[in-house]
């Protein structure tokens, strides 16, 4: 099995090589699947991400004001989550990632119904390959975050049978690609469609 570093690099290269028109279409398809998922429609406060380095773009969802959207700001080795809506200002944070303003209201774990997690790759068990910072592993290892539903967001080519994992890797509960949303294997289904 290739190691994480090698896998990360080749999958990021493949994602960067996607023609913009395909990236747009696949991103829109992911948004449609999410819109039709009961995990989303039953939620009120959803944590998401601003697309970075050709990650699937979920921004069309953020205009739906039925939901309260939260986005991360990296503070040292942890993420703090802030309310953001279209039109609010942003700044460029650690790693060059767009972040909400740090004076925007903070969202606490007990207010969160769903977390949309950006991934370099996901496997059928829900394990995630990130950028190597371990930010989501650290977050999801904390009891206050552990029971909140999670959906890993990846393009289908990066949905793999099995990723190399380490003791600290935390699996996600669901995976959504441009083809469909799936429950991670070994999980009771949470993906009822409306
Ligand atoms: P990623 O999940 O971003 O692909 P890795 O799984 O390789 O990255 O994790 C990156 C680093 O994060 C590892 O060196 C690991 O030590 C650290 N890490 C992950 N989870 C925790 C945790 N719960 N507590 C402390 N450090 C952690
Ligand atoms: Mg990890």
TrEMBL record:
Signal peptide: none
Top-level enzyme category: ligase
Similarity annotation: Belongs to the 5-formyltetrahydrofolate cyclo-ligase family.
NCBIfam families: MTHFS_bact (TIGR02727)
Matches recorded under Pfam families: 5-FTHF_cyc-lig
Record's catalysed reaction(s): (6S)-5-formyl-5,6,7,8-tetrahydrofolate + ATP = (6R)-5,10-methenyltetrahydrofolate + ADP + phosphate
Protein name: 5-formyltetrahydrofolate cyclo-ligase
Needed cofactors: Mg(2+)
EC number of the protein: 6.3.3.2
Presence of the UniProt keyword Magnesium in the record: yes
Entries under Gene3D superfamilies matching the protein: NagB/RpiA/CoA transferase-like
Positions bound to substrate: 55
Keywords: ATP-binding, Ligase, Magnesium, Metal-binding, Nucleotide-binding
Organism domain of life: Bacteria
Any one biological process term the GO annotation gives: tetrahydrofolate interconversion
InterPro entries hit by this protein: FTHF_cligase (IPR002698), FTHF_cligase-like_sf (IPR024185), NagB/RpiA_transferase-like (IPR037171)
Binding site for ATP: 4-8, 128-136
GO molecular function terms listed in the Swiss-Prot or TrEMBL record: 5-formyltetrahydrofolate cyclo-ligase activity; ATP binding; metal ion binding
